[in-house]
Amino acid sequence: MRLSRYFLPILKETPREAEIVSHRLMLRAGMIRQQAAGSFSWLPLGKRVLDKVCAIIREEQNRAGALEILMPTIQSADLWRESGRYDGYGKEMLRIKDRHDRDMLYGPTNEEVVTEIFRTYVKSYKDLPLNLYHIQWKFRDEVRPRFGVMRSREFLMKDAYSFDLDYEGAKAAYNRMFVSYLRTFTRMGMKAIPMRADTGPIGGDLSHEFIILADTGESQVFCHRDFLALPVPGEDTNFSDDNEIGDIVQRWTAPYAATDEMHDEKAWEAIPEDERLSARGIEVGHIFHFGQKYSKPMNAKVTGPDGKDHFISGGSYGIGPTRLVAAIIEASHDDNGIIWPESVAPFDVGLINMKAGDPACDRVAEELYDSLAASGKDVLYDDTDERAGSKFATADLIGLPWQVIVGPRGVAAGEVEIKNRRTGERANVAIADVVGRLSSAA
Q1: Which residues touch 234 (CB under 8 Å, ≥6 apart)?
Q2: What is the arithmetic mean of pLDDT over 244-273?
Q3: Model-level pTM?
Q4: Which contacts (CB < 8 Å, 24+ apart) does range 264-270 have?
């Protein structure tokens, strides 16, 4: 993509409404535009990151055996009355009426809708286990939306819902999602720590939040330092082996870890002081086992191997992709801007032509643009006539993993400069070796 043809509305000044780093940098880097309080448009650069985040989520949900569907954003209030949640959910739910004066709502979550789908089509234990997920926009009317997309009213959510015959099956489904989440966040360049958490309005008796540590985190968290060295399950993880998955969960829940709400001071004090880690954290995922909370009031049951009807045991599993983009920035930035992990970067390489219009620089930049694209790299080619300082500032601000800098002096010597955005390391590389160098560094 040529920057001269791209929509990248960079802001030189920090907007006054931006309270935290991610909000500030997302606005300055032209990733988002606020439409109303807690409501944002995602501009081209931000949308590319969001799509990559969603792609990783999809791959790991599919790997764990979940099946993707898509449910409506507008839901019938009657379903929520069946479950008993309609009156008790609170003002965060946006309640509306259609032209026939029927009560409707903009879905903050989808337990009722997916349970209605399940009870309509699934009648036998032979069709279990089942896990259905979607990635869809949600709305919660936050009393005070703030921190940009970190706490917005309208947001993208991956929510999955598992259905099993009994508690043992439901616990196995919970464990699969637990391990899937460990892999998901690691692939995005983050270390997420699972912590016992309150179940809130979703309900149930088992819940974990996945927290990344960041100085600008919204809450205080407490955990054992062992978490920092625990190995994350690899691609060869067998999600069909309940024992293997259960062992992984056991290792990842044995050390102490808790959010503010679940913190046990007595258990905390029993840990040697040099092994304690108290820090700020950002929630990036939340999983729940809620058993028969929805199946009983909504009459969702299947015939078991004993020939009797059984109310299914369920769970739900959320990740907020829009929130994740901000969390990644909070965990990975410096004074100059964003530092994207390669897996979610909007482009792999920023190609900077220092003297656009110079025949030699243009020729080398065009050749590199074509050869890098042919090698599979997503390239943002700065072919504008901006000043050098402005080009460098933009490149650092938007945080692409690699910068390839084409200047007259280097071209005359048959080389260009390569900069690693994360480390700041620079190297002069022969023009013919650039593609190979970047390919081997990936």
Answers
A1: none
A2: 94
A3: 0.95
A4: 268/222
